[in-house]
Amino acid sequence: MKYGIQLYSMRDLAQNDFEGAVKKAAQIGYKMIEFAGFFGRSADDVNKVLAENNIELFGTHTSLHELIQNYDETVAFHKAIGNKNYIIPFHDLSDQTKIDEFCALVNKYQPMLEKEGIRLAFHNHSGEFKTNADGSVPYKAIVEKTSLFLEIDTFWVFHAGLDPIETLEKYKDRLLCIHLKDGLADGKGMPLGKGQAPVASVYKKAVEMGLDIIVESETLTPSGAEECTVCFEFLKSVSKGE
To answer: Which of 7, 67, 152, 158 could form a disulfide linkage to 197, CB 3.0–4.6 angstroms apart?
Structure first.
């Protein structure tokens, strides 16, 4: 198995030493990177650091607003770095009007991106599974009204009170990958194996389904690099138990 890391997990390092964060991810053992910002680096800079560390670009967390505000330049950058997965990390979906606007926009941009060889996907938090004050349910609408690929963050599914394994099975035909993440029921993040989410069972299900596994650990305790190392050690231990 090769595992990816969402570089937001090491944002404390990446914001001051982007290249160092990518190098550290590779040193820990991750084979894929999912970026959350480029800290002013050019496409050439990104390609260079990926090549130097023999680490693959899996995708990026990039807002829908970047497509809306500067489509041509945004797409050109993502093509230049060879990005195949443009993942929307969050969007305000707090009422039906905002949900409808979002669905219309992604339905406009998804076929345009596909022509450029880029898949458009959505990353969830827990709120999208819950009912808004006006009775709308964001995730239900996304599934029914769009063809977006789904990057299911399994911790936030757990936090929403749902079963992550059942959720993966439910949306298996739309899955791009998973975020494997741990934490407490109250929403506090933890490194893999240190929280209350069923991460070992989710790992097993993801392997069974042939899904790409992207690790995210958000609390920078005591540092992002150390958390990511703990997570990788967990992956090694749980893989031996298959």
So the answer is: 158
Residue 129, SS3?
helix
Question: What is the tally of structural domains in the chain?
Answer: 1
Over the range 53-85, which residues count as b (16 or more CB within 10 Å of their CB) and which as e? bebebbbbbbebebbeeeeeebbebbeebebbb
DSSP string, 143-172: HHH---EEEEEHHHHHHTT--HHHHHHHTG
* 17: helix, strand or coil: coil
**Tokens (6 digits) for 220:** 């920078």
pLDDT tens for residues 8-61? 999 999 999 999 999 999 999 999 999 999 999 999 999 999 999 999 999 999
- Tell me the residue range of the domain where 189 lies: 4-240
Q: Where are the alpha helices (DSSP H) in 53-184?
A: 64-69, 71-80, 96-115, 138-145, 154-159, 164-170
- Residue 213: φ, ψ to 5°: -110, 120
Tokens of 140: 């239900």
